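Session log. Operator J.P. requested a structure for one protein chain; no other inputs attached. Running the standard single-chain path with token output.
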Amino acid sequence: MGGSKTTTTTKVERTPEEIEYTKQQIELAKQQLKLVEEEHGWQSEIYALTKPLLEKYALMVDQDFAEMQSPEYQAMKAKQQQLDTANIDAQLRNLPLQEELLQRQLDEIRRGGAATDEQKRLIGEVANRALDSGQTDISRFLGTGLDQVRNQMAPSRGMRPDDGPMVEAAQRVLEEAVRQQGQLTQQVRGAQAQAELNFPLNAAQVTNQANQWQQGFNANMNEFLSGLKTQAAQNRTALMGQLFSAPMTAGDRGLNLIGATRPNPVNFPQNTTQTTKQSGGSIFGGIGGLLSGIGSVGSLFSSREFKTKIKPMEAPPGHMLSPGALKQNFRDLGSPQSLGGANGFGIMGPQTQPTSPKGTPAGPQVQPGVGGMGGTAINPVQTVAPPRDEEDALNRLRQMPISSWQYKPETGLGGPTHVGPMAEDFNTIMMGKQPEPFINTVDAVGSLMASVKALDKRVQGLGLRGQGKKRAGATQWPRG
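Structure written below.
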């Protein structure tokens, strides 16, 4: 369906609060600019104080570099290299010794701690020498004892050596020599067996200690050389790092005012609005898209501040509430193409409703200049509440004035005349609450339904329901 489209640009004056807020932002920006200028002066003073220190530090670094290039430093570096070379040569010379020690340890482990044949031979030689030495002492003791019995003891007693008492004395000397010989043999052979057991362990311990010392010496030497190289590298890195970091950290000393807070940008509000008004078939043709929110809750602006030419409701010929106009309007609004299968009706208004979190329209989807509201509400989004007093709703409806009006030109909705209650009257009289600039669509429909039910009860009480005769001159409303 065709229609015209008009775009109106209206200048909206900023409120005193917005003007005051803008002034405060400008004043804040000035204060911050002043702070930045002060910080710039402080930074200049700090740099003037630190500049001599930086120059001295740079001179010191230059001297260090010069010393590194001096003949003395180069000679010391050459000696260090010679020391490193000598240490490496010493480690190379010790490698065969270390391998031999490790091989001995491996052989001892494989023998399980037993003595070798060579070790047993050496231990046996030592034991035999101990036996020979002990037997010599015992033989000397035996000869000396027999001589004393024969040459001293027998003559002193007036006896011969072969006399019985002298023979008994010689026998005691011989028994003592035999006892000492047995004791000597037992002790020497016991020591030999113990030596054969302990000697491999002691030898392995000595070898292990030597090997550990050699390994520790090599590790300490490597650690020493590595430490020298690491320390030299750290010294060079420290010199270079201080050279580059000192100028960068000089500004951090003192008040640390390197940066200042940036001023907040002044956000000037938009002082113009654009309103697009559609008329003719383009309005009613789009009603189906406006009333697609089944179960939605909406509201319409209907405050006096948006209206002009407010009059009591009349229905002159040709008005939108005249029979002919109602016939056409309800036909358009009730068509499936317009409503998308949902019952509803259109109301002129300037507000566009939001959508619900699930993406379905949460209220009438109203284009600029057009209002709309859904016709049903579903149980899952409602809570149980006491029913409305129908008679009370009808009495309140009687008290509420119904007027005709036009929207003010500055709203961009001027033109046709509309009919309905004022939002302040509806909320105060019909709903019994504080005045509000809009009418809740569900409250409006619910109040109307309650009033209709009260009228229906009265009609039933009069016995007029179901009569087939029509009153003379009554208007015949067309269907569909």
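Operator note: The chain has two domains: 15-276, 279-377+387-462.
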